[in-house]
Prior knowledge:
Elements: E1 7-8, H1 15-20, E2 24-25, E3 31-35, E4 48-53, H2 65-71, E5 78-86, E6 92-97, E7 101-104, E8 107-110, H3 111-118, E9 124-134, E10 138-147, H4 155-164, E11 175-178, H5 192-206
Parallel strand pairs: 10-11
Antiparallel strand pairs: 1-2, 3-4, 4-5, 5-6, 7-8, 9-10
Amino acid sequence: MAEGLIMFVRPSDPPGVRRETCGRPASPDDEVYLVDSGGNVVPDGEPGELIVRGPYTLRGYYNVPEYNARTFTPDGFYCSGDLMRRHPSGNYIVEGRKKDLINRGGEKISAEEIENLILSHPAVLNVACVPMPDPVLGERMCAFVIPKPARTLTLGELTSFLTDRGLAKFKLPERLELTDDLPLSKFGKVAKNVLTKQIAEKIQAAI
């Protein structure tokens, strides 16, 4: 990350660990924790936001005190917004971004985790998973999918594919929208806020 922390795998790590993880901190003086929304350290194996303090991690941004107050803890840890979990090897695995979570009845689902699985479906060219409003659970997941040429996909086929790969039932998409393209932000990333608004308006119109 540009803010300072460097992680890498070591040659002595087993091949599976080198493939599955982004490594561990470069310096023994890097202080790394994964925390929940209340700032509590999560158990090993559970996803949490990466917070870090170390000899080469910045202490604040220039001349933006209000932003610094939100981005750094009082004792100087940088709150990255990255979701990670600690592998049994001691290395770390990236799970996605804190802002890219879907809150289904209190269960936090990483959109990136589901997108990566959906991308392995032979009929899928690209995908974006976003929250859609639900009166009972607050949010459910909608998958916007660009199918490959001459291919199509149903929600049942998609959920069966994901279930066969061991995905927990509460993480399954509950709506599928096939589309020809995905809106992009000015930085070239999928504009998920546009898709979230689009599906919310579609649901509202159907009521």
